[in-house]
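G., the chain you wanted modeled:
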Amino acid sequence: MVWPVPGQDGSDDRLRQSTRADATGSVGGLIRRGAKSVLARWVMAQRRRRTDPSAHAPSSTDEATHAWDGRRRFAEDYTFTCVQPGLGIVARLEWLPGRDANRLWLTVLRDGKAYSLPGGQIIQRSATSDRWRSGGMVLDCLVPLSEWTVRYVGDLVALDPGGPGPVKSEDGTRIRCSLDLTFVAGADPYTPGSDDDPDLMAANLGRAQWDRELLRSVRRVTSRGYVQVGDMQGTLALADELVPIRGHALRQHTWGVRDWGAADYGFQCFAVADDGSQTWVHHVQFPFVTVEGGFVSHGDNPLSPIQGLDITWERRPNRAPAHATLGIPSENGRAALELSMCSDSAFVVDGRGLVELGLARIGTARGAEPAANGGVSGWAMWGAQRRWLPRP
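Predicted structure as tokens:
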């Protein structure tokens, strides 16, 4: 089964209905016309910002945690994703000031094997004022926007990723884990929304159902953040096995109000081809709008925002898709990344959202030129979030 993607979920019908409503001169029509005007000004602002990247680029002070303004569900996270042949790691430390706590994720995915924290995550009371240290995980910013270290010592649970149902990390054999990694940036930070292609953003927002609920939601959304690609080096010890880490990495730092049940479905994918090129895409489906974007990086060239995204995937209940294809326009036509999941894990966050993590092989999509190495052309890490609570 292929999940709904933009343009296949009735959004065009809603757009036609909105256009007819605009002609009536109703209050709803006025709101929609005002929202479209705001959208046009936003797109123009993005175009101006792209000509002057310093106008919105993250600064070194953004690397520190930000003051809590008292809003419910405020959170700030530092997430590091590493991928190399046959191995993927997601390490995440989140500050929850409203709960006086920290949330930890650590998931290690190997070809046919998976390890995670018990229950997929740990929420631990803040014991000190050090917001980068909790539950055995320690982060350290050596050089802002350039170099970080990630360390962890504690237990993980060995999972069975080959079962017919979702991979649950409450059960399994506990093993000792030691992680010592250093992230070195390979490019400037990329700010989703601001650095995404404005035409792509405008096309998606133009298909939205523009009504009062959308405008209220836009006002409520105040999350900020950025991602950054680089290299990850260090060691991973699992029980008696020592695994050298020499991989590509993506780190993410976000802060603001975070509701794990707000979106119907969303995913991020960090893909690294054998030639060293890197692709990062994000895609989020809300009831009223779909937002997506990302970039492609080739060697030392600047990050190039993607201009479109075609998605198909083979759904599995409550876990990462078995297969997914991401079609991305490129200078030479349309590149298609075909992902085949080889290990995954899933767990529920705050009782509101299901998080799915997966390690995938990258092959050549059907209809494209075959890869020289028999079809496998790289590796990718998949991370998705879906609403767990039924909507009223």
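The chain has one domain: 75-387.

Shout if anything looks off.
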